[in-house]
């Protein structure tokens, strides 16, 4: 487990160029940390939650490891602390850390929201999309340029509903999906090359 934790933190700092944040940006800052964790680390830790932490001194050990490999990371204790807190939450509660991001009433996310839910360089996205009842739905993505992406649609129990690759056409991608059990869902995007998502919308196919 220590090895996975070290690897997770080692990769994360390669994505960040931003300086230490101010307290006034705390909510948005923690959202950034959650997006980083849920696109880089969670893929391993989603399958490892146990209702308790199963490693010792992870924060201190991870901080030492990061600073040993990345000198510039020594000034980013805020990120080390936030990522450890998110990991702690997932390990203890078997859940994603709550994110203070709005769910649009009409399920149309514009760039003003989406830009805050992506990593800085890679443009990986982690988007809480809210509660869904059983039925058939479709995700529509609008991209800044044509690209190939990997998309994950995940339940709050970490069940994968969608795990596939998609190629855009005219900067658009359509992803149909079926919900079998009511619950909160999350959408994760990994582009083959960094690309900005300008809009995400979800429609209920029974209304079509």
Q: Give the helix proportion (percent range).
A: 25-40%
What's the number of extended β-strand segments?
8
Strand content: 25-35%
Number of domains as seen in the coordinates: 2
In terms of structural class, how would the helical and strand content be classed?
alpha+beta
Assigned CATH architecture of the largest domain: Sandwich
Query: Which stretches of 5+ consecutive residues score pLDDT under 50?
Result: 1-7, 9-25, 69-73
What is the rounded Rg?
17 Å
- Coarse shape: globular
The average pLDDT score comes to 79
Instruction: Report the span from N to C terminus.
Output: 47 Å
Largest sheet features: 4 strands, antiparallel
Number of helices: 5
Per the CATH scheme, the topology name of the largest domain is Jelly Rolls
- What pattern of helices and strands is seen along the backbone? HHHHEHEEEEEEE
Strand arrangement in the largest pleated sheet: 1-8-3-6
CATH class of the largest domain: Mainly Beta
């Amino acid at each position: 487990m220590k090895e996975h934790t070290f690897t997770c933190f080692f990769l994360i700092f390669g994505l960040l160029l931003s300086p230490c944040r101010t307290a006034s940006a705390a909510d948005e800052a923690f959202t950034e940390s959650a997006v980083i964790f849920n696109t880089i680390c969670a893929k391993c830790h989603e399958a490892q939650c146990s209702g308790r932490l199963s490693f010792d001194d992870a924060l201190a050990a991870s901080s030492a490891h990061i600073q040993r490999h990345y000198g510039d990371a020594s000034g980013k204790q805020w990120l080390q602390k936030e990522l450890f807190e998110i990991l702690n939450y997932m390990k203890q509660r078997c859940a994603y850390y709550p994110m203070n991001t709005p769910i649009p009433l009409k399920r149309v996310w514009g760039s003003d929201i989406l830009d805050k839910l992506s990593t800085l360089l890679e443009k990986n996205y982690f988007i809480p999309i809210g509660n869904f009842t059983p039925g058939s739905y479709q995700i529509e993505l609008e991209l800044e340029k044509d690209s190939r992406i990997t998309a994950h649609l995940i339940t709050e129990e970490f069940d994968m509903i969608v795990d596939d690759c998609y190629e855009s056409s005219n900067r658009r991608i359509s992803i149909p999906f079926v919900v079998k059990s009511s619950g909160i869902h999350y959408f994760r995007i990994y582009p083959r090359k960094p690309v900005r998502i300008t809009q995400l919308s979800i429609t209920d196919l029974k209304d079509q």
